[in-house]
Amino acid sequence: MKKRFLILLTVLFFINIYSDDPDEYSVGKASDSFIKKVFDLNSFFTLDQQKVNLTSKNSSELIRLIGYKFSDDSVYFKKIMFVLERSGKEISLYTLPQSIEAGYEPAMEFYDFTGDGVSEVLYKSSTGGSGGFYYYAILSFQKAATEVLLPNRQEIAIKATGKFIKGFKAEYKLPNQETKIIDLSQNKEYYIQQKVYDETGNIVNDTELWITTPVTIEPVKSGEKYNIKTIQMIKGLSNADTIGQINAEWEYKDKEWKLINIE
After folding, report:
1. Mean model confidence pLDDT for the chain
2. 50 to 62, 127, 174: CA distances (angstroms)
3. pTM for the predicted model, two decimal places
4. Are 34 and 25 in contact (CB under 8 A)?
């Protein structure tokens, strides 16, 4: 599940390599000028910046989340990058893989998912759709070759299937073959109207349930580190017809995410 993160550019920072003006590339000012010159991105935005221990327990690196908009009047970000300043001398730029780089309202949070006392980055941005979905990724900047511990929410989706059954009920089956039943009797008139059931609760048209990929990924404290909790929605006839959810907890261990609880 672990994948190599694309290193776009790493440069050892020396003042006079790019400019005759020492202040242009002094620490704290370097990133803006560097990005504009190398990528010709004059309309990028610094969305967040924080000092965090990303390379060792006692380190303190400045990490900036920057975004390049699809257009000047758009709130959608076409490209997302990280600027990491290590020890005030080395400036590294990283771009997200294509599958997770776009979105609305990009944000980053910091948690220790591996238990080594070093923080990883939990990145998320909204897809902008009506389903309330987000792009997620968990990134480690600890090594020279930055790693993606979680490339997307699909990687930890519970593979479940379900359908409407007789008696105004729905059932879904989990990967461990456990079957769960959902009572739909409170909304039986709706399902009768939609010709899923007849008046007596018999199936008129066989209809499968739609079980989403995780709509949210939440850090949960577990001893000295953090696990993640995922929530997948169970849909009936439409996105608006939510009839249940699947909650799961995952632990990062032996370089992969392992399912430790499901309900």
Report:
1. 82
2. 6, 24, 40
3. 0.81
4. yes
